[in-house]
Every structure is written in C-alpha cells, then in structure tokens.
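User: Hey, my collaborator sent me this sequence without any context and asked if I could get a structure. I don't really work with proteins. Can you help?
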Amino acid sequence: MNYFINIAKQSKSLYIFLLMALVFMFGVFAQSSGLIQEFLDTFEDWIYLFKQNVLIVLVSGFTAAILGISSGILMTRPWFKRYAEVFAQSFNILSAVPTLAILAIIMTLTGIGFKSAFIGLVTVTILPIVRNTFQGINEVPEHMIEAARGQGMTDKQILWKVQIPNALYVISAGIRTGFALNVGTSPLITLIAADSLGEYIFTGIQLNEFNSLLIGSFSIAALAIITDFILSRLQFWLLPKGVNPQRFA
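Assistant: No problem. I've predicted the 3D structure and written it out in structure-token form, which is a compact way to encode the shape of the chain:
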C-alpha cells in the first residue's frame, strides 16, 4: 500500500512540475511575441478545436481499449493459440507502418473527415493495448493457474478471477501508452480534414505564423500531460492494491 502511495505522490509532483514548466514557457513566449493577444483573438476557435480534439481522443481511445483488451484476451485462449502468432505478427507489422501512411491508406478507403480520423487513431492506439494485454495474461505465474485448477475452476473462471486481475497493471500501462500515442497523433488528423488542435500547428507552418504554431503545440502538450495524469489517477484508485508492479518491471 505504501508503495502505491509513494508512486502516486511522485507522479502527482511530476505532473504539477510539467504543467508549471509549460505555463512558464507559454508566459515567456507570450510576453515577447504577443502570443496571449492572438490566443484571445482566436479563443472561440480554440475552444471548438479543443473540444473536438478531446472528443475524438476519448471516443477512439475507449474504442481501442475495448477492442485491444478483447483481442489480447483472445490471443491467450487455448483454442486460439495456433493462430496467436500470426495474429501477433500482424499487429507488429502494423506498428512498423508510419502514422501518416496509416492515415493515408485509411483515407483512400473511407474518405476524409471524422470517420477516417477515428479509424486511424484507433489503429494507432490499439497496438500497445493488445501487446500488453497478451503479455500481462501470459506472464501470470503458472503455479497460480494450477492452484486455481486444483480448486475446480474452469478456464473461463481462471481468466476472470486469476489471470486478468493479476495482469491489470500491465494492461493499464498499455492503455496509458495507447492514449499517449493517440494524443500525440491527433494533430495529424487535420491533414485528412478532421477538426483538431493540429489546425493551429499546420496553419502556423504553412503561413509562417509562429504564434499559431506555439498555441497548437502548447495545447497538445498540455492535453497529453492532463490525459496521462487522469489515467494515472484512475490506475491508482481502480487497480487492486494487492498487485505488485515490481513484478512487471
């Protein structure tokens, strides 16, 4: 229990420090370049894009979490083991494809806009979740499974009462990694005509507007920090306190 409390305190301090550093950097740039005035002038646009960015991150992230955990569990089932290697390799190959290439391929199949952006972000987010779910369940000690079988548990009961509870820390780490990739990739969906804070970034690049570029960059950085902070809090409060994260280090 003390281990979890110390980790929570340390991570909370780190997030506060990062946010303070981000605010400080934003203030430094703002004083020298009129950044705050431009931010205020486009505040309504920023609110709209921020909401759209958060919406697609949440929708695609939770969809990827459900599909990724389900796929990872499927790969560990005895009747599916003959296909598990092929299934795992397909995800490994997909992880090697650049994100822009994934978005371009999806765009040619489903067009431009929210649908393509959603599919692209799900594809990017799902990979670490599948990998961690598969690894976490497979790393549950065999003696625990044998003990469960000795008590008369079925494979389904072993999965839900033994394997998944002991793999939760690894699974949750995969979800946090997936959401981090999701937020980091979300500005790119502007290239396929989906609304996101990437509009500030790419407008700044195309028109050589330094302030617009900074507003978009700082906003995405802050969103990434806040998202990971929220997930770390959920991880701390929802995981069984009996899980020992050192076993998965």
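In plain terms: The two ends are 17 Å apart (CA to CA). You can pass these tokens on to your collaborator as they are.
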